[in-house]
Amino acid sequence: MKSVQNALNRRKKGEKGFTLVELLVVVIIIGILAAVAVPIYLNQRKSAWRSSVESDVKNASLALETLSTENNGALDSTWAKTDCTNPNCTVGSETITVSKGNHLAITIDATNNTYTITGYNENLNSDGSGTAKTTYSSATGSLSSHN
What we know:
This is Prepilin-type cleavage/methylation protein. The protein is of the alpha+beta class.
């Protein structure tokens, strides 16, 4: 408390500027805020990449359902794709827009009239392992994520 009073007294006498201690306190506070904010920001980026993949997989499933409807409810094995990437992927007469960094793989089982769409974002799989994937299966109608 005395140091605060001393600092105020110096200011009254006309001294200008900040003391070294005051500057160090501000730098330490900024450092603590940055240490808290950076991990939160990185997690938000990962969440956005996952959401982007989910959206692309859902859009691809809508395109395949449209094609199936145009084909009297049947799936064509020529619609299978091993790697659809940005910006567009043509499947039959449909064009699927794929977000930057996302990859989609479409597997068609014409015998059972089902399909599977698997997607991942290269930023979530920087090691090339492809472990963070989102999969849609038309047999179950469910969307699942694997980390």
